[in-house]
Design brief:
Layout lengths: L1 H21 L13 E3 L15 E3 L7 E7 L4 H20 L3 E8 L3 H11 L5 E4 L3 H5 L7 E6 L6 E7 L5 H10 L3
Parallel strand pairs: 3-4, 4-5
Antiparallel strand pairs: 1-2, 3-6, 6-7
Length: 180
């Protein structure tokens, strides 16, 4: 009986250690996990071919990409949506090097479309209905923001932030401080 208890404890510890390393959040200065996402309704918004159905972040035609990780049922995501739209508008007006894409973690196309319509979001939005991206990115809380440099051979994480930002103006300045 004691051997079974020791074996169960050892297996539990091994699983905890393995899941901890597999679920690490993206680190600054490293490449994000390579995830294939469903294309937005208008793939050309991200510089993708019009007929593409799936894409990876490195295929986006922009020097810098802000990936917004949200869930349509998240109250913090709902509260931040107007500031997110303002950030998108400011980035379009202020710095054409920056592209943004929202990823609905665990959401269907219907849920993402309802969310973007309800909150007036005009940025490209994609779905992650099976939580594949969510799991690959370490299961971050929502909202989370991953800012990528796409100029090299592979994307590089410049900033990863869980939780709401302090306002569109301040967040845009923070993003620009990471751009060259």
């Amino acid at each position: 009986m004691r051997k079974i208890a020791i074996l169960c404890t050892a297996l539990t510890l091994a699983l905890c250690l393995l899941s901890g390393t597999a679920l690490a959040l993206p680190s600054e200065g490293e490449a994000p996990p390579d995830v294939t996402l469903h294309a937005p309704e208008n793939p050309a918004e991200l510089g993708l071919r019009p007929d593409v159905e799936k894409f990876s972040l490195g295929e986006v035609d922009a020097p810098y990409l802000l990936v917004v990780l949200f869930n349509s049922f998240c109250p913090h995501c709902q509260a931040e949506a107007p500031d997110l739209q303002r950030l998108y508008e400011m980035s379009r007006d202020h710095d054409p090097r920056l592209e943004m894409v929202a990823v609905g973690l665990g959401n269907t196309r219907y849920e993402v479309d309802l969310f973007t319509k309800k909150y007036g979001l005009t940025m490209p939005a994609v779905v992650d209905p099976q939580y594949e991206a969510h799991t690959a990115y370490g299961r971050p809380g929502t909202p989370s923001y991953m800012f990528l440099d796409l100029r090299g051979d592979e994307p590089e994480v410049l900033l990863f932030q869980e939780g709401r930002f302090s306002g569109p103006e301040a967040f845009l300045k923070l993003l620009e401080s990471h751009m060259e």
